[in-house]
Amino acid sequence: MTSHRQSSSPIEVLPRDEAREHLLAIADILAKVLDTSIRIPGTSWSIGLDPLLGLIPGIGDVIANLIGTVILGIATRLQVPRIVLTRMSLNLLINGTVGAIPIVGDLFSVWFRSHARNAALLRTAALKPDRETHADWFYVAGIIGGTVALLLLTIACIIWLIYKLWAVVSV
Fold first, then answer.
1. Which terminal residue of the chain has fewer beta carbons within 10 Å of its beta carbon, N or C?
2. In angstroms, rounded to a whole number, what is the distance separating the alpha carbons of residues 8 and 82?
3. Angle at Cα 32 formed by Cα 71 and Cα 95, nearest 5°?
């Protein structure tokens, strides 16, 4: 009795198309949870975890966008073109920056739905036959790192402003 496995690893490697579809499904689920998982009764609107987390002052938007970067990680793994990664990063940056504004940012997150946009961009790009090369991995890592750094910097500035305002008010 011979085995088709060439290594003794207990992890079975999925066929390329099956693995790709699995990663796209994960991105779709994340986008739904973050953007449209809860239907508002009596309306056609739905919200997700993103605007709800945004109600937590200072850190809520960071948490939502850090979860959203998982979709960017999946895009990296599927080697989507750099321009798509750039658009996805900009969607997160816009959502994180505007989302940092109390109340208005949360309403913007409900409307903008950056994670659903990113999942749609990912699905479209990942199913195209023309792929990028491994040489772009450093560029992609820089884009993802830069997006996360800008989001964290934005939140740090907001926390600093709140701290300064608190110091002025409490005197």
1. N
2. 36
3. 60
**Burial annotation 88-121 (CB, 10 A radius, 16+ → b, else e):** bbebbbebbbbbbeeeebbebbbebbbbbbbbeb
CA dihedral 32, 34, 39, 44 (to 10 degrees): -80
Domain count within the chain: 1
Instruction: For residues 48 and 31, give the distance between their C-alpha atoms in angstroms, rounded to a whole number.
Output: 9
Place of tokens 């990912």: 122
122 found inside a domain: yes
For 50-98, write each residue's pLDDT tens digit: 999 988 887 888 899 899 999 999 999 998 888 888 889 888 988 988 8
- 30 within a domain of the structure (yes/no): yes
- Domain presence at residue 8: no
Strands 38-39 and 46-47: antiparallel
Look-up of token digits 């994960």: 26
Nearest to 122 by CA among 156, 74, 159, 158: 74
Tell me whether residue 3 is in a domain: no
Its domain, for residue 125, covers 16-169
Q: Which DSSP symbol is given to 81?
A: -
Closest CA to 123 of 167, 62, 66, 78: 78
